[in-house]
């Protein structure tokens, strides 16, 4: 590793090798050569004077890229595509005259970008499906464990630990729907020439419209795509990058929300992310167990949310059939968005696979607040026994305020049940009131909702994508 120049943390610390390869020079330039072969084969099949010997020569050197030749050529001509056309021609002297025939730079550049983004979306999908699968297991395991719910981060009507996890899973499922839609709409640019009119190919094929019309479908099929975009300028619409990065931003937002909840729960000591035996939480405070994985999820997610603005702005700034002010931005925003989301999903896989739950702490927090939540049930029982609902409501409100004051001002335990038992109009003993403090009475349909959500929503998705399941992630730091 070079230590005297900047190294991207996305490569060094966060993204997987699999995602890094997709945005590597090897992936890029091998794809260029595959595209040049596909173009030559298509032109040959449509009747141009290209020989099988030329195509075989190109295939023989598809992957052994002579980077040194291309690099030296680029210093001279200041054009990356023509430098690689030249380098390929050095290796393929017989095919040299027909490499890149009729095409413009965007033929290899833009089609490669679409191919790489498509493959990267598939990798993101694989990891996303596995995050959903792990959350579904967690939800199933803890679907009946009552816990204090929060609105405004204030104690509210109880839920269950598993039900809360379904909220995280549901947002990731929404992201999966968006990802699947965008994946289904990915189309190659094809080979449309300098302004998208295919004028060069019309010239090559002596004005034969039917043959020119076949070029894009044939190239798409050879490259594993169903279609090319129907019309374009020199480039594919940069709105495609916007759609792709918006999917990544959606995943980042879902992960950020989940990581925030886990961080808050870890503060409460109710849930804890994985913490390794030799892991150090703080250089100064040896006792600390900081939620560093969840914090890293949040940190990377904020980067992706901001990064998604880049393609939107770039798309809006393109002039007519093309300008080049997209190029430098695309080289940064698209790969780094994918590398960051890859790191986020690896962290999500790691965290959800090892989430530790502390039922005793959860119960302690819940029981400290449950008397307040039980007041409506207590009041209804007293009304059934002949009490006046309006009168009882006012009394229970007054007693709740007093119990709350005592907890907050004196640091004392919640004595609301004792105060209610001492009030004759309720007609209930302390023992009777304590019997009503079963947390499962106050979680509504949490368990049933988890069962229905997993059965009707999650499992069909996992079944549909079962070939993607089984992914585990290792985090680098």
Structure, described:
This protein is mainly alpha-helical and 477 residues long. It is 64% helix and 4% strand. The chain has 20 helices and 4 strands. It has helices at 9-14, 17-22, 25-45, 52-60, 67-77, 80-91, 105-141, 161-184, 199-204, 209-222, 239-267, 292-307, 309-316, 327-353, 359-373, 375-384, 389-410, 416-421, 430-435, 446-464, and strands at 146-151, 154-160, 271-272, 356-357. It has a two-stranded antiparallel sheet with strand order 1-2. A hairpin with a 2-residue loop joins strand 1 and strand 2. Helix 7 packs parallel to helix 14 (327-353) and helix 7 (105-141) packs antiparallel against helix 20. The longest helix is centred in the N-terminal third of the chain and has 37 residues, at 105-141. It is elongated. The mean pLDDT is 93. This is Adenylosuccinate lyase. Keywords: Amino-acid biosynthesis, Lyase, Purine biosynthesis. Residues 370-454 form the Adenylosuccinate lyase C-terminal domain. InterPro entries: AdenyloSucc_lyase_C (IPR019468), Fumarate_lyase_CS (IPR020557), Fumarate_lyase_fam (IPR000362), Fumarate_lyase_N (IPR022761), L-Aspartase-like (IPR008948), Pur_lyase (IPR004769). One of its GO terms (molecular function) is (S)-2-(5-amino-1-(5-phospho-D-ribosyl)imidazole-4-carboxamido) succinate lyase (fumarate-forming) activity.
């Amino acid at each position: 590793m070079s230590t005297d120049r900047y190294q991207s943390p996305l490569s060094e610390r966060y993204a997987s090798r699999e995602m890094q390869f997709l945005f590597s020079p090897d992936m890029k330039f091998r794809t260029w050569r595959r595209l040049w072969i596909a173009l030559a084969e298509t032109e040959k099949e449509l009747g141009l004077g290209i020989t099988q010997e030329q195509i075989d020569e190109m295939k023989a050197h598809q992957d052994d890229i002579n980077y040194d030749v291309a690099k030296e050529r680029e210093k001279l001509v200041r054009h990356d595509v023509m430098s690689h056309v030249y380098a390929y021609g050095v290796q393929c002297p017989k095919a040299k005259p027909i490499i890149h025939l009729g095409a413009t730079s965007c033929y290899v550049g833009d089609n490669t970008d679409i191919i790489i983004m498509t493959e990267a979306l598939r990798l993101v999908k694989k990891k996303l499906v596995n995050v959903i699968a792990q959350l579904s297991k967690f939800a199933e395991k803890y679907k009946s464990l009552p816990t204090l719910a929060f609105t405004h981060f204030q104690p509210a009507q109880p839920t269950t630990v598993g039900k809360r996890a379904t909220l995280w899973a549901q947002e990731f499922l929404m992201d999966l729907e968006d990802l699947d839609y965008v994946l289904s709409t990915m189309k190659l640019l094809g080979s449309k020439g300098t302004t998208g009119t295919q004028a060069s190919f019309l010239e090559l094929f002596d004005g034969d419209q039917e043959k020119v019309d076949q070029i894009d479908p044939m190239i798409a099929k050879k490259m594993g795509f169903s279609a090319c975009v129907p019309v374009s300028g020199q480039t594919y619409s940069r709105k495609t990058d916007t759609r792709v990065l918006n999917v990544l931003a959606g995943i980042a937002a879902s992960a950020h929300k989940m990581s925030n909840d886990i961080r808050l729960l870890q503060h409460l000591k109710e849930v804890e992310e994985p913490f390794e035996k030799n892991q150090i939480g703080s250089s100064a405070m040896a006792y600390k167990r900081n939620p560093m994985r969840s914090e890293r999820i949040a940190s990377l997610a904020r980067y992706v949310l901001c990064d998604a603005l880049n393609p939107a702005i770039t798309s809006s700034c393109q002039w007519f059939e093309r300008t080049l002010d997209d190029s430098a931005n695309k080289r940064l925003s698209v790969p780094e968005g994918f590398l960051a989301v890859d790191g986020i999903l690896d962290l999500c896989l790691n965290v959800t696979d090892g989430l530790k739950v502390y039922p005793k702490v959860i119960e302690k927090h819940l029981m400290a607040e449950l008397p307040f939540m039980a007041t409506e049930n207590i009041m209804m029982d007293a009304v059934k026994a002949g009490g006046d609902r309006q009168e009882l409501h006012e009394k229970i409100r007054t007693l709740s305020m007093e119990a709350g004051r005592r907890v907050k001002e004196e640091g004392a335990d919640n004595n609301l049940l004792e105060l209610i038992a001492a009030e004759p109009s309720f007609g209930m003993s302390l023992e009777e009131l304590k019997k009503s403090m079963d947390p499962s009475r106050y979680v509504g349909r949490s368990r049933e909702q988890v069962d229905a959500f997993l059965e009707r929503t999650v499992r069909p998705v996992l079944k549909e994508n079962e070939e993607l399941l089984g992914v585990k992630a290792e985090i680098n730091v």
